[in-house]
Here is the input.
Amino acid sequence: MLDRRQLIGGSAAMIAAGLARPAFSAAAVKIDDSCALLVIDVQNCFLPGGSLAVKDGDQVVPVINRIAKGFANVVMTQDWHTPGHISFASSHGGKKPFETVDLKYGKQVLWPDHCVQGTDGAGLSKDLAIPQAELIIRKGYHKDVDSYSAFTEADGKTTTGLAAWLKARKLKRLFVAGLATDFCVAWTAIDARKAGFDTWVIEDACRGIDTQGSLAKAWADMAKAGVKRIQSADIAA
Here is the structure.
């Protein structure tokens, strides 16, 4: 799996593996009441003009809005950091965004300040139109540990409770969309597989950061974990 504690180190082999698209069945993937759509971190800080903008991040919104109409079950997530969060470069004297530091749980990538609790940047995009969304999972709110996955924090053991909620609802098949493909989307999808869910990532409903081979490596790691890669056109409500 793409190590949540380490950003640096993608290799040519990883890039080649990630660029090799898997073959897919021509049959559409049918959605039913055992399915849930996970919409990951479509927040203002990650959209154009935000403090940690993902290129073309706003382009996922109309795709997500369209496919969400076919899902009775939708969960959304928000990065929800404290001021002075440990993942912010500004919290480490002399450090710059995208450098790394060693923390008690391992390597931590340092980011620009983003998604601070209660700020406009932490808000979900105003253009999202998913009134049936049942749950918002907020993550990264512990000041001393980061959290990319919707399921498990960066220490690898502290859970958000999402897996238990999904299982209590008897939901078995998860479809993941949002930002960014190579970080929060990928770790969410891989943790979903670890929790026993059939998992698909909807490629055109995501956008990636893609730094130093991170996007190709994320796709390779997701494929290894058994995550399926599809397009929104492959979904039949």
Q: What stands out?
A: The chain has five helices and ten strands. The beta strands are 29-30, 35-40, 74-79, 100-103, 106-109, 135-139, 173-179, 198-207, 228-230, 235-236. Residues 111 and 212 are 15 Å apart (CA to CA).
